[in-house]
Amino acid sequence: MKLLLKSVIFIFLTISVIGCLEKKPSKTVTENGVINVITPSDFKTNSVGQVIIDVRTPEEFANGHIEGAININLFDKNFESKLLKLDKSKPVFIYCRSGRRTATASKKASKLGFENVNDLQGGLQKWVKNNYKITK
Fold it and tell me: Which of 43, 45, 65, 84 sits a CA distance of 20 to 30 A from 105?
């Protein structure tokens, strides 16, 4: 009986934690501007003609990325200096594989003075799940 109760509690906690990991669409007002977590549909529509930044490694980027994206690896020691070469007053659209690195990159961009940062909810995984194309 104890084993069954422990198993049920473990399953419930696992499902709860997994459900909380994916970021939901949201808007965070920062000192310098706003960070928007947006759906793949909104990202696709609103990023046309804008700066799209893929923060994954160059190897991940080479395996497929959103068309028109530039690769600025979050783990690169020059990540912030590369970001600063972009116009901070224009919207930027940032993504990674699942959304975790994007959250970090979005906060860094905002601290650097970017006024309108858009974070792809669920990253490239969710982009592909929505049947949107990637390019190599």
Answer: 45
Task: Express each pLDDT in 32-51 by its tens digit.
Answer: 788 999 999 999 999 999 99
Q: Pairing mode, if any, of strands 34-38 and 92-95?
A: unpaired
For 4, other C-beta atoms within 10 Å of its C-beta total 8
> Residue written as tokens 């650097």?
112
Residue 74's alpha-carbon distances to 10, 20, 96, 104, 109, in angstroms, are 34, 23, 9, 8, 11
The answer to whether 20 is a known catalytic residue is no
pTM recorded for the entire structure: 0.80
The answer to whether 110 touches 29, Cβ cutoff 8 Å, is: no
Query: Does domain 24-129 sit in CATH 2.60.120.1130?
Result: no
Among residues 83, 96, 117, 120, the one annotated as catalytic is 96
